[in-house]
Specification:
Helices cover 53% and strands 10% of the residues. It contains 19 helices and eight strands. The protein is elongated. The two termini are 40 Å apart. 43% of the residues are buried. The chain binds zinc ion.
Length: 488
C-alpha cells in the first residue's frame, strides 16, 4: 500500500526545501511540491521552523540567566504538555468525523493517511527510561550535612509564600533561596512529589495523577495514576543505611515512596505532622545521630485552605504563615538538639494555586513554587536565578554524598553551595564551572523535550485544522451539488 506519500514527507522535512530552494528553479520546485501552491503549507513550515529555532535563545547567558532559562524551558515543556493533552481530545473528536465527510476523495485520504502516520511516529517516541544502573553501589562521599529535612507546603504559590511565610522571610538570608522554581505537569500533588524525590518528570516516573481517581475522569485522557517506576532518593539513602522518614498526609503517596525500612506517618494536618516529626526526633535521636536522616514533612494546610477559600483569601495566607511557623519549630528543635552545624532544611511546594484550583489550569499560572535551603553547606543570602522541582533530589544526593536517583534528569543546584565549606569537606571543587556545565547539559535536555512535545502538539493541531478545512470545503461542494440537483 502506497500510503507513504514521499512528496508529502519532503514538504514537511523543512531543511530540504530550504536548501533546495537555491538549487532548483521555482517552477521546478512547484512541480515537485505541489503543496507549495497553498499558502497554508508555507505557514505550517514556518511554524515548525519557529518551534525549532525559538528555544535556542534559552541556551546562552550568564549563570543566573541560565538558571532562569532552565526554569522557563521547563515551564515551556509543561505548557506544551498541557496543550498536547488539550488538543489530543479535540484531535480525536474532530479527525474521524472530518475524515468521514472528506471520505469521497481517495487521493486526499491518502495524504491524510500520511499525516496520521507521521503523528503516530511522533507520538511513538515516548520517553525511554535509561537503565544505566551499575550493580556496584558507589562509595559514599563525605556528607556536607548528615541530616536533611525536605518540607513541602502543599499548593503554595511562590508569590504568596514570599509574602506570608513570615518565619522563612525573616530567616531567608541565613540560607540560599530562589524566589521561584518550577514544579512540573500535571500540576497536582502526587506527580510533583514523586518528581521531587525521583528527580524526573511524571512522564518518565509514571505517576501522572493522584491515586484514588479524584481527577481521573477529567480532560486529560492520557494521564493516570501508577506507582512510580523510577528510583527515589529515599531508596538511595536506604542503600547507604541512612534513616529515612516520611510524614505525609496522603497514605498511598507515603506507601509508594521509600524502601522497607522507611518510617511512615500518614494522615493529619500541618500541626499534627510537625508534632509527630519532633516526637520522632526525640524517640530516634541515637539512631539518627549514628546514621544520619532523610525526612520529608508534608504540610497540607495551604492546599486545603486554597481549595476552600481561594488563593486571595485570608484562609490561604494564614495557612502559609502557620506552616512557616512550624518550620520555625523544627528550626528551634534542631538547635536544641545541637544539630545546627550538620543539618539542612529545604522548603518548597508541590504546586501553586489560582483561585481555588491548580489542576486543568494553564501551567504558568500555578507552577511557580518557592525554594529556601537552610544549613551550613549553603552560601548565606545567595539567590538562585531559578530552578526546577526535579533538581531537588540530585541536590539532596550531593549534600548526603550519595548518588542521585537512577532516572534523575535534574541537576545539582551547585551555585547555592558555600565553596569553601564544600572544599573543607570534600577537597578541591570549582562551583562556577560545575554550575555552568550542568546548566548547559540540562538546557540541552530541555530543548529535546520541548522539540518532542512541541512537534507532537503542533502536528496534531495542524492535522485537526487541515481536516476541518478540507471537510468544510467538501461539505460546501456537496451542498452545492445537492442544491444543483434539486433545481434540475
Ligand atoms: Zn498538592
Amino acid at each position: 500500500m502506497n500510503i507513504l506519500n514521499i512528496k508529502f514527507f519532503k514538504a514537511f522535512y523543512f531543511p530540504y526545501p530550504v536548501f533546495s530552494f537555491y538549487q532548483i528553479s521555482r517552477k521546478k520546485m512547484i512541480a515537485m511540491y505541489p503543496f507549495y501552491k497553498r499558502k497554508i503549507f508555507l505557514l505550517i513550515i514556518l511554524s515548525y521552523i519557529l518551534l525549532v529555532a525559538s528555544p535556542l535563545a534559552l541556551l546562552s547567558g550568564s549563570i543566573p540567566q541560565l538558571e532562569n532559562n532552565l526554569a522557563v524551558a521547563d515551564a515551556v515543556r509543561s505548557s506544551l504538555l498541557y496543550l498536547f493533552d488539550t488538543i489530543l481530545v479535540i484531535f480525536l473528536t474532530v479527525v474521524p468525523i472530518g475524515l468521514l465527510v472528506i471520505g469521497g476523495s481517495r487521493r486526499r485520504l491518502k495524504r491524510l493517511g500520511a499525516l496520521s502516520i507521521m503523528i503516530l511516529i511522533i507520538l511513538s517516541y515516548s520517553p525511554v527510561i535509561m537503565g544505566t544502573s551499575s550493580q556496584a553501589i558507589p562509595e559514599r562521599e563525605n556528607p556536607l550535612a548528615s541530616k536533611v529535612f525536605i518540607i513541602t507546603f502543599d499548593g503554595t504559590r511562590a508569590d504568596a509564600f514570599w509574602q506570608y511565610a513570615e518565619f522563612i522571610i525573616n530567616h531567608r538570608d541565613e540560607g540560599a533561596w530562589a524566589y521561584r522554581i518550577v514544579c512540573t505537569y500535571p500540576t497536582i500533588t502526587y506527580p510533583n512529589h514523586v518528581s521531587l524525590f525521583t528527580g524526573t518528570w511524571p512522564q518518565i516516573h509514571g505517576t501522572e495523577l493522584n491515586a484514588g481517581g479524584e481527577y481521573s475522569s477529567q480532560q486529560f485522557i492520557l494521564r493516570r495514576y501508577r506507582p512510580p517506576r523510577a528510583e527515589d532518593i529515599f531508596e538511595v539513602a536506604e542503600k547507604y543505611n541512612i534513616v529515612t522518614a516520611i510524614f505525609s498526609a496522603p497514605v498511598t503517596l507515603a506507601s509508594i515512596l521509600g524502601g522497607e525500612s522507611t518510617y511512615r506517618f500518614t494522615g493529619g494536618e500541618g500541626e499534627e505532622m510537625m508534632q509527630r516529626t519532633l516526637n520522632f526526633l526525640n524517640d530516634h535521636r541515637t539512631e539518627i545521630e549514628a546514621k544520619g536522616l532523610l525526612a520529608w514533612i508534608h504540610l497540607i494546610d495551604p492546599d486545603a485552605a486554597g481549595h476552600q477559600g481561594g488563593s486571595d483569601s485570608y484562609l490561604y495566607h494564614s495557612a502559609i504563615r502557620r506552616m512557616a511557623d512550624l518550620v520555625g519549630a523544627l528550626y528551634q528543635k534542631i538547635h536544641e538538639l545541637g544539630w545546627e552545624n550538620d543539618t539542612v532544611i529545604i522548603v518548597t511546594a508541590d504546586h501553586g494555586m489560582i483561585g481555588n484550583r491548580h489542576y486543568g489550569v494553564w501551567p504558568p499560572l500555578v507552577i511557580d513554587v518557592p525554594l529556601w535551603m537552610w544549613g551550613k553547606p549553603f552560601r548565606s543570602g545567595l539567590r538562585l536565578g531559578g530552578g526546577r522541582i526535579i533538581d531537588i533530589a540530585p541536590t539532596v544526593a550531593f549534600i548526603l554524598g550519595i548518588p542521585p536517583p537512577r532516572e534523575s534528569e535534574g541537576i545539582v543546584l551547585y551555585r547555592a553551595f558555600n565553596e569553601s565549606y564544600v572544599k573543607e569537606k570534600r577537597g578541591e571543587i570549582d562551583i562556577e564551572t560545575l554550575a555552568l556545565k550542568s546548566l548547559k547539559s540540562a538546557l540541552a535536555v530541555e530543548y529535546t523535550e520541548i522539540l518532542k512535545w512541541g512537534l507532537a502538539t503542533l502536528t496534531m493541531a495542524w492535522i485537526t485544522l487541515l481536516v476541518l478545512l478540507f471537510a468544510f470545503r467538501d461539505f460546501k461542494k456537496l451542498r452545492k451539488e445537492l442544491i444543483r440537483r434539486k433545481s434540475m
